[in-house]
Design a protein that fits this description.
By secondary structure, the chain is mainly beta. It is built from 6 helices and 44 strands.
């Protein structure tokens, strides 16, 4: 564990440098029935509770995620999603999620419907979501989600909407953090939930992080605060107020060399949500504000470089549904005001005295979505939707995006869904890294960089083989992407050139295609699933007049996960997860030459090399302690991550030149097994 934490901090140093209700299909004598329930299949056991929709939507209880292995011993909703088909990441530490070939910036991640622009701690080791505060996570892989203004998937982490009747709480502690949640009634119609989390890293690992070096000082800390206020106005009306604030700060200093660097980022969301239910009508009105900021700083010998960016959005959205006997109308309206500061370097000292601050981008984004869902001849459940969006920054832009979805039942009770959707995204994210790190920045579409667009086609199949206890699901997809953005500069350009970062963008196109397979099985006290994904994500960008064709940096051709959970008895539960994936692409260096004090580097084809195939085995063992006094439940969880001591490189560093070729050395985060122990009590 100590060695792993030290490797993690080395990586930090390296980083400094460089509620739509869906129609679904149920077989009843070859006819269809309408339902507002979002699942086709429910897989239940002590260890799991997954609701899987043939339309591409997955609901997963956070409480039951607790039985899965995790780095800290405590559940992480975002990391747990990586054990499902189509959900990929590029390494153990990156915060990005890559779903069906789309980039991380194409995903909409939200808290109770409010967007969060970078929901990760510790450079992606685990998410910013305190699992004690939330109830479930909902993933929609398809792009026809009504509330998403992104090209990819939508992920919503939801807190309970149930008024607390008595004082209750949970306390959880593990080697990296301590967290709690407390819920209590204020009156018979009002309740409050308060949750918090704080890092233990500086407290437990101070000597380790600094390695006994007299002049070296490394500090890292983070915290989360979540609040939820509930008011039951009457039987038809409810009011919710949600608040979230999270902050990360990493600092490094070498006293003898007068070297200091830091990396900071923070998120904050506030929302007021009014819900009204009246017979066949539903109204959900949300007003919210969300913001994100990051800053990278470095100081040495009188020279200082600070690079910062931030984004904030003020939003108002309304969801309305009118239900008829065998159909319903659905409406969605959202108005967003964005204020964005793209990456802005401040350079002073011996490197110069310059302030290259970007102009703050003020933009307005409006969205209107309407759909009609109905049954046709009692055999086809059809959804027809149209999304109108307009965006104003430098110029006014308007787009109309249709989506069509058809559900039906094939022979042998095979549920099938065919869907097509077009979607537009007006906000872009890029940076020196493409790994979902907090050094990346956002900017808005303008007259030079058009909005990103996607046209996606999905075919999904679901079969429940009840006599054997199996469920199998298959999802085939293909997508065409237009106006994709990549950053064409390097960190060195930032220092040596008086550059405007927005002048170094490359515009291109791409394709995503592949399949996702999930096989689930429960037998007595043992349950398991296998998830497999095949994906390709080629990209074509023009750079200096030449068109480059290559695989996306997040591309993993093959990705397989096997998860097993065994309920030994009422006290003991063990689980395991095994992941095997193809290596991700990177740009290698062919040769290098030293000319005086300069090194000339000859890069190979963009993303022309691949890391070795990735594999990792994680184990977990949980024990429920006997109840004591007022405690409802006590639980000990032991996890062993990377149980096979797998070495999965996350980067290569080049140390010397031999015969004009650079000698590379692999950089690892984990090289040994990483144990973790957590304690959780309920009261």
């Amino acid at each position: 564990m100590y060695r792993s934490v030290r490797s993690l901090l080395r990586f930090i140093l390296l980083s400094f440098c460089v509620f739509k209700t869906s129609l679904f299909v149920v077989a009843q004598n070859d006819t269809l029935v309408m339902s507002s329930i979002e699942d086709v299949f429910v897989f239940e056991s002590k260890g799991e509770d997954i609701m899987y929709n043939v339309n591409g939507e997955i609901q997963w209880s956070l409480e039951n995620m607790n039985y899965l292995p995790s780095l800290t011993g405590s559940v992480d909703p975002i990391k747990s999603l990586q054990l499902l088909p189509s959900v990929q990441t590029t390494s153990d530490i990156t915060g990005g999620l890559y779903i069906q070939g789309s980039d991380n910036s194409h995903n909409l991640i939200s808290i109770d419907g409010v967007p969060v622009y970078y929901p990760m701690h510790l450079l992606g080791f685990f998410s910013a979501f305190n699992s004690l505060h939330f109830k479930e996570v909902v993933l929609n892989k398809n792009v026809d989600s009504f509330n998403s203004n992104r090209l990819g998937a939508s992920i919503d982490v939801r807190s309970p909407n149930i008024l607390p009747k008595a004082l209750s709480g949970i306390v959880d502690a593990n080697p990296l953090s301590s967290q709690f949640t407390l819920s209590f009634p204020i009156s018979n119609k009002m309740g409050l939930s308060v949750s918090g989390r704080y890092s233990n890293i500086n407290l437990l690992y101070d000597r380790l992080l600094n390695g006994g070096y007299k002049h070296r000082n490394i500090k890292y800390s983070f915290y989360d605060v979540d609040l939820k206020y509930l008011l039951e106005i009457n039987t038809k009306n409810r009011l919710f107020i949600n608040y979230y604030n999270g902050d990360d700060c990493a600092e490094l200093s070498f006293g003898g060399f007068q070297v200091k660097s830091n990396l900071k980022w923070s998120n904050q969301t506030t929302s007021i949500n009014w819900q009204r239910m009246n017979n066949n009508n539903m109204l959900d009105l949300i007003m919210y504000n969300t913001s994100y900021a990051n800053k990278v700083g470095a100081f040495q010998s009188g020279s200082k470089v600070d690079v910062m960016s931030d984004i904030s959005s003020l939003g108002l959205k309304a969801v309305m549904k009118h239900t008829l006997e065998s159909s319903f109308f659905f409406f969605f309206l959202e108005v967003l005001l964005h204020s964005i500061l793209p990456q802005s370097p401040i350079i002073s000292g011996s490197l110069g005295s310059d302030f290259y601050k970007q102009t703050v981008q003020e933009s307005l984004e409006n969205t209107l979505f309407a759909s009609y869902d109905f049954l046709y001849r009692n055999k086809y459940a059809i959804s027809l939707g149209l999304r109108s969006s307009c965006f104003y920054n430098d110029v006014f832009d308007i787009n109309f995006d249709p989506n069509v979805s058809v559900n039906f039942v094939l022979k042998n009770d095979i549920a099938c869904n065919v869907s097509m959707a077009i979607r537009t995204q007006y906000l872009h994210q890029t940076g020196f890294s493409s790994n979902g790190l907090p050094t990346e920045f956002w900017f808005a579409s303008n007259d030079k960089m058009k909005e990103e667009r996607i046209a996606k086609f999905n075919v999904g199949f679901e079969k429940d083989i009840k006599q054997y206890g199996y469920t199998v699901s298959i999802d085939l997809y293909s997508a065409y992407l237009k106006n994709q953005v990549e950053f064409g500069a390097t960190a060195l350009d930032l220092i040596t050139d008086k550059m405007n970062v927005l002048d170094h963008m490359m515009i291109g196109k791409g394709f995503n295609y592949g399949l996702d397979l999930m096989l689930q099985k429960k037998y007595g006290d043992f349950s398991w699933w296998l998830a497999y994904s095949f994906s390709q994500a080629p990209r074509m960008f023009e750079n200096n007049g030449l068109v480059e064709k290559y695989q996306s940096a997040n591309s993993r051709m093959h990705d397989m996960k096997i998860v097993g959970i065994w309920n030994i008895n009422d006290k003991w539960t063990c689980s395991s997860s095994f992941v095997y994936a193809s290596g991700t692409p990177y740009t290698g260096i062919k040769s290098a030459m030293v000319l005086g004090e300069n090194v000339l580097v000859n890069y190979g084809k963009h993303n022309g090399c691949k890391y070795p195939d990735y594999h990792r085995l994680d184990l977990s063992l949980q024990y429920e302690l006997s109840k004591k006094n007022s405690l409802k439940k006590q639980q000990l969880a032991f996890s062993l991550n990377n149980a096979t001591f797998a070495k999965n490189p996350i980067a290569y560093k080049y140390n010397e030149i031999v015969s004009n070729k650079l000698v590379k050395e692999a950089f690892y985060v984990f090289t040994t097994a990483v144990p973790s122990l957590s304690y959780c009590c309920y009261f």
